Amino acid sequence: MPNPVEIRTLAGPEELPEWLRAVSTGFYRGPTVTDEEVAVRSGGADPARTQGAYDGARCVGTFRTMPQRMTVPGGAELPVCAVTNVTVTPTHRRRGLLSGMMAHALRAARERGDAMASLIAAEYPIYGRFGFGPASWVTEWEVTVSRTGLDRRYAGPADLGDGGSVEIVDAGDFRRLAPEAHERFRAGAGRQGAIDRTDRWWDLQCGILRFAEPVAPPFHAVYRDADGTVGGAVTYSSDDVWRAKLPEQTVTVADLFATAPAGERALWRFVLSMDWIQRVRTGLRAPDDLLPLLLPDPRAARTLTHADFLWLRPLDVPRMLAARTYPTAGSLVLEVRDKDGYAGGRYRLEAGPEGAACEATHEEPGLSLDVSELGALYLGDESAVRLHALGRVTEERPGAVAEAERLFRTARRPWCPDSF
Ligand SMILES: CC(=O)SCCNC(=O)CCNC(=O)[C@H](O)C(C)(C)COP(=O)(O)OP(=O)(O)OC[C@H]1O[C@@H](n2cnc3c(N)ncnc32)[C@H](O)[C@@H]1OP(=O)(O)O
Question: Which residues are involved in binding acetyl-CoA (predicted)?
Fold first, then answer.
């Protein structure tokens, strides 16, 4: 008979070293953590929102949440409970430890008033049972620069044609300039899925905080529009591969965002125009990123990865549905099933391009669906028609699926640029 395992919130920061050792074990990073790692990683964890599963004194399960602000279609933002550092030590798996920690976290999130919970799923089959649905997808491309058809005589940052410019800046200037541009980026109407970046996020990105010594620090550049306002930023690194005196370098983009398409085009153009660089890896982008079609030959961008990324778990349906905007006016009654009891019920949505209202109702539903399917539909990526074809939403009134399709889909696909 295995020992009983106790799931509890950490008493305080003094419990973080043992808890971080368990995270390291669960993620196969190593059986121990150094004092330096503990010092850096502890900074991200609020003990009051950190759970451990304890077999005696040994931590064998970990689960942490943090506050997150997420942009929804139309540009408003909602408070979200972001789930991270989920591990169960291999000796203690499939005994319900994740289920126990998830139940505590979702209850706390509902009580706090968070509209949804979010996570990046390590494996697809884990989180659907807890009411999460895949809400945004990502694509990573590798561009073979010589095949793009781009004019290699491009003269560099001053040659963008829109009065804008790209400037390579050091980490200190980037830390000062990029966060404010990112706040404007994520407040855009078509930025659904983008999340806020904390000071700690920027400190890690700029090497002010580090988990380990980098092989080579990354480069940072900003785009300035004709007025000099910073309207985008890129962080990238290069390897140093030569074969028989020929450069074979690959640039990897860690982050690239812009508040407007001109900046986005300029930053891609900059990254693709450097001497020596044979290939550019884009990092995980929205599947409808501008990049491939910026190239005279889009086939120069080969897809390396296409996968689900951000998963959402609705907790407060009226708040979620009223916060976003919709492409057209319309109304829909949804019957939402939630076996865990946080978000289930019947809701009437009055939707429109300028805003929406949503409240509980006793009217007959047009559509019934599981809470995880609502998570998948919410940011506009998933299709109600497709879910209906798969048998995952039920049309209770003729025409309701087509109405949901019209209302929920967005012109541009959602994108969460950050892993967490
Ligand atoms: C947001 C993030 O942090 S993502 C990172 C997730 N962590 C990892 O992938 C690290 C490696 N894996 C692990 O640490 C563990 O296996 C976990 C955390 C995924 C699962 O923890 P467990 O305590 O074993 O899960 P638990 O026992 O509560 O399982 C509940 C149900 O989910 C199922 N399940 C759990 N993990 C998986 C999986 N990886 N694939 C498929 N099903 C799974 C179980 O079979 C069980 O199903 P059942 O109720 O029908 O029997």
Answer: 86-88, 94-99
